Amino acid sequence: MIQVVFTVDSGVITGYSLRGHADFSEQGSDIVCAAVSSAAYMTANTITEILSLPCRQTVDEGLMEISLSKQDAEGAQEILSGFLLHLNALSQEYSDFIQLKISEV
Questions:
Q1: Exposed, middle or buried, 54 (CB in 10 Å: 0-12/13-18/19+)?
Q2: Could you give phi then psi for residue 77, rounded to 5 degrees?
Q3: For the segment 48-94, what is each residue's pLDDT rounded down to a tens digit?
Q4: Most exposed: 2, 4, 29, 45, by fewest CB within 10 Å?
Q5: pLDDT at position 27
Q6: Distance set, CA 55 to CA 2, 15, 27 (Å)
Q7: pLDDT at res. 52
Q8: Which conformational region is residue 52 in: left (phi greater than 0), alpha (psi within -120 to 50 degrees), or beta?
Q9: How far is 92 from 21, CA to CA, in rounded Å?
Q10: What is the SS3 assignment for 3-69?
């Protein structure tokens, strides 16, 4: 199961963490994993390469974490909110494979 945690500080999404694997199907043909991974990378790349905002990133096997300061995160709310909306829809469609949580700090 993919565990997704969005970090929110006073209504501002400041980052997200993805852990685990969907195990929807075998590696290489797992559409749930592909959908989540693709959206997560697009979000991170948009924040760093298009918006030019600094963020802390950790990427490893089965792990992706992105964290921004609250001030920088305010400039990325549209992309972060869109990512949250997308993952919320995916987690409803594939509830056995994606767990979504919002963590207030």
A1: exposed
A2: -60, -35
A3: 999 999 999 999 999 999 999 999 999 999 999 999 999 999 999 99
A4: 29
A5: 84
A6: 22, 9, 29
A7: 98
A8: left
A9: 17
A10: EEEEEEECCEEEEEEEECCCCCCCCCCCHHHHHHHHHHHHHHHHHHHHCCCCCEEEEECCEEEEECC
Reported residue count of the chain is: 105
pLDDT tens-digit readout, 22-39:
999 988 899 999 999 999
Torsion sign over Cα 10, 15, 21, 27: positive
Residue with tokens 């469609």: 93
Q: How many whole angstroms separate alpha carbon 35 and alpha carbon 90?
A: 8
Which amino acid makes up residue 49?
A: E
Domain assignments of the chain as residue spans, ordered by start: 2-104
Residue 53 near residue 76 (C-beta atoms within 8 A): yes
